[in-house]
Specification:
Keywords: Signal. Residues 1-17 form the signal peptide. With 215 residues, this protein is mostly helical. It has helices spanning 3-16, 21-37, 50-64, 69-83, 90-95, 100-117, 121-126, 128-137, 139-155, 159-169, 171-178, 180-197, 200-203. The longest helix is centred in the middle third of the chain and has 18 residues, at 100-117. The chain is globular, with a radius of gyration of 17 Å. The protein starts with a helix and ends in a 12-residue tail after the last helix. The structure holds 2-acetamido-2-deoxy-beta-D-glucopyranose (2 copies).
């Protein structure tokens, strides 16, 4: 979703990349464990194509529903904790064998997976079916939010405003369909995804906070 921006800022990453062999080794071990849950064998330089693994996971969720979600969460939080021992960016993920666009997707996926399975977990489990239905029912409008963000990121100069517009764009569909917490959940998911690749706005205090959950 942030592809255009990420291509734009990738030059900065190249200049700053701190991705030593030790970091790469740790990431290899962490991702090897992660992808094996989805039936892939990681060999150095050979990361699965992101979209393929995403489809495998989506199919698991569609076939098995709520019962498989806790297991998917175990794997997602294990990946986060395992990789949290080292500081890295998308360039390091490329060194595992992902191309540049997949590398940013892996970064996003790691952060979103962790959010869904920690802060968002209670709502994910409580509103699982409704959130899935709302996603399908509003697919066109939700995609429009993403397309608008991609467009704005390459055509405006205020990326923090662009991110905030995006944060406000999708949650109302979930709020309307499934209630307050589902809207908060989607805001949190998108916020985690933004921070995963570019946390500058958040660090400057310019990224809007999501509303608090109400239990
Ligand atoms: C990365 O790989 C995916 C899957 O093979 C492909 O769809 C995408 O276009 C590739 N991106 C780049 C920047 O090479
Ligand atoms: C697409 O998103 C933009 C920006 O949020 C909005 O102004 C426009 O009405 C949306 N169009 C549709 C068809 O939802």
């Amino acid at each position: 979703m942030l592809r255009n921006l990420l291509i734009a800022v990738s030059l900065l990453y190249v200049a700053n990349a701190q991705c030593g062999q030790n970091t790469v080794s740790i990431l290899q071990k962490c991702y090897s464990d992660f992808v094996s849950f989805y039936g892939y064998t990681y060999t150095p330089g050979n990361m699965p194509v992101y979209w393929d693994l995403h489809q495998v996971r989506t199919k698991m969720l569609r076939d098995q529903g709520l019962t498989v979600q806790p297991k998917i969460c175990d794997v997602a939080t294990a990946l986060f904790q395992c990789t949290d021992k080292v500081k890295f960016d998308a360039i390091c993920i490329q060194e595992l064998g992902a191309n540049s666009s997949d590398a940013t997707s892996w970064m996003t996926d790691r952060a979103v997976g962790n959010y869904q399975c920690t802060d968002g977990y209670k709502t994910l489990m409580a509103d699982f079916d409704c959130i899935g239905k709302a996603r399908d029912a509003n697919a066109v409008a939700l995609q429009n939010c993403t397309d608008t963000l991609d467009y704005q990121l390459t055509h405006s100069i205020n990326i923090c405003k662009d991110f905030n517009d995006f944060l406000a764009c999708q949650p109302p569909y979930y709020d309307k369909a499934c209630g307050h917490n589902a809207g908060v959940f989607m805001c949190g998911v998108n916020r985690a995804g933004i921070d995963a690749n570019l946390d500058l706005c958040d660090k400057l205090g310019l990224l809007d906070k999501c509303a608090p959950y109400k239990y």
